[in-house]
What does this fold into?
Amino acid sequence: MLLLPCPWCGDRPEGEFVCLGEAVPPRPRDPSAMDDARWAAYLCDRDNTRGRHQERWWHRSGCNEIFAVLRDTVTHEIASPGATP
It folds into this structure.
């Protein structure tokens, strides 16, 4: 079982969380100024990196907070919350 380090609740079992996927870049200041192709790329395109990358997790069955962790997709090793790749 994967234990996730919730910054508010401590280490908790994976079943309490929902993975929101790879952390996304900051939202554009003016999405309406983007053409459809660039907006679709922002919403849908992710690197799907093999190895270490930053993911967002929602602690659905706990504190209800969303946080980021650095996780290795091969080994499932988790670095400290908010760490950068």
